[in-house]
Amino acid sequence: MVAHRLIATFDYLDKAFPTKSPELRNRSIVQSIATLAARVVATGRGAGYEERFRAFVLEFMSELSRQVELGRDAADPDYLLFQGSVNAILGLAHVLGMRFSCGRCCASTRHSPNCSTRQ
User: Fold this and answer.
1) What is the CB-side half-sphere exposure of residue 23 using CA atoms within 13 A?
2) Residue 30 in contact with residue 64, Cβ under 8 Å?
3) What is the dihedral of CA 66, 25, 89, 15, to 10 degrees?
4) pTM of the entire structure?
5) How far is CA 50 from the centre of its chain?
6) Per-residue model confidence as pLDDT tens digits over 16-52
7) What is the C-alpha separation between 81 and 20, in angstroms, rounded?
8) Which parts of the chain are beta strand (E)?
9) How far apart are CA 102 and CA 115, in angstroms?
10) CA torsion 34→21→83→77, rounded to 10°?
11) SS3 of residue 74 by DSSP
12) In whole angstroms, how large is the CA radius of gyration of the chain?
C-alpha cells in the first residue's frame, strides 16, 4: 500500500516537474513538496492539476526566497513558520548524521580516539 502511494506521488511530481527545476535543489524543500504532493494525490482529485501545483510551488519558492533575503525584516508568518520548520529538520538531520558517523566509527574500531566506548 505504501509503495503504491509513493509511486503515485512521484508520478504526480514527475508530471508537475517534467524538467529539472533549480528551485528544487534542497533536500528538505523537496521532501516538503513531496509530502504536500502526497496529500494532494491522496485526495484522489489531483489529476489534471499538475501544472497548477508546479505554479504554486514555484511561486511559493520565489516568495520564500524573498522572505529569507529580507532577514529580520521578513514579516509573513506562514513563510517564517515554514522556514523555521525546514531549519529544525536540517538541524536534526545534522545531529543525526553526526551520531551516525560516530556510531559507524565506533562500530568499525573500538580503538578510535573519538569513540566514547573505547576500552
Assistant:
1) 17
2) no
3) 100
4) 0.67
5) 19
6) 999 988 878 888 888 889 999 999 999 999 999 999 9
7) 27
8) none
9) 7
10) -90
11) coil
12) 19
- What's the pLDDT at 97? 57
Task: Say how many CA atoms lie within 13 Å of 116 toward its Cβ.
Answer: 4
Percent composition of the chain: helix, strand, coil (DSSP 3-state, to 5): 75, 0, 25
How many residues does this entry show for the chain? 119
At residue 61, the pLDDT reads: 87
Of the candidates 77, 51, 54, the one whose C-alpha atom is nearest the C-alpha of residue 64 is 77
- Helix orientation angle between 77-108 and 50-70, rounded to the nearest 10 degrees: 90
> Cell numbers 534542497 correspond to what residue?
26
DSSP letter at 21? -
Q: Taking the C-alpha atoms of 64, 68, 69 and 71 in order, what is their torsion angle to the nearest 10 degrees?
A: 150
Residue entry with cell 494532494: 40
Q: Which residue's entry shows cell 508520478?
A: 11
Q: Are 53 and 40 in contact (CB under 8 A)?
A: yes
Which among 110, 81, 88, 78 is positioned nearest to 28, based on CA atoms? 88
